[in-house]
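Thread: Newbie trying to understand structure tokens

Hi all, I'm a second-year student working on a class project, and my supervisor (Dr. K.) asked me to get a predicted structure for one chain before our next meeting. I've only ever worked with sequences, so writing a 3D structure as a token string is new to me. If someone could post the tokens and maybe explain what I'm looking at, I'd be very grateful. Here's the chain:
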Amino acid sequence: MPMNRLTDDERVSQIAQHIESIIDLLGEDCDREGLKKTPLRAAKALWFLTSGYRTQPEALMQQALFEHEGSQIIIVKDIEFYSMCEHHILPFFGKVSIGYIPSGKIVGLSKLARIVNAFARRLQVQERFTAQICEAVKDTLDAAGVIVVCEGEHLCMKMRGVEKQHSATTTVHYNGVFETDSAMRAEFMSAIR
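---
Reply by user tm_fold:
Sure, no problem. This is what the structure looks like when written as tokens:
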């Protein structure tokens, strides 16, 4: 059966079969008590952690757009996120702060947290994740400018490889007036610290 015709349950079942094969290849016995249900549990977890592929962030924001004239800058800071590194399929997590200057429209604040989730719940790199959030807010709101700062910790750097426990990565992406107005960028950075 072609992949696009499978139901969600059928996809999860096939993922579980693959996870069982991986566990076997690692030298473990999927029939032992602690592992009997692990392939299905792991498949369901992976399905949830990649639910962003089945979510349209712009559509989420369209559900709560409101007319508004005025505000200089609107900031929602410290939105926590959990994502999976596309290079090692290991978690990275942290917080995102979003600022935007409305151009006639504002969005319900919870929708900004929801679009963070929509982009985080995909196999990601932090740089693209930050840019995707920024560009989606700009495009949906036709905002005068958007700025996004993402601070993340990557288990692929902590658990394996260089094993640096205190490392963190900060990425910044901005557009519109934030590209030319350094005072606006500074105001945003000061507000989120």
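A couple of things are worth pointing out once you decode it. The longest strand covers residues 74-85. The beta strands are 65-68, 74-85, 91-101, 104-107, 123-124, 145-154, 169-176. Feel free to ask follow-ups in this thread.
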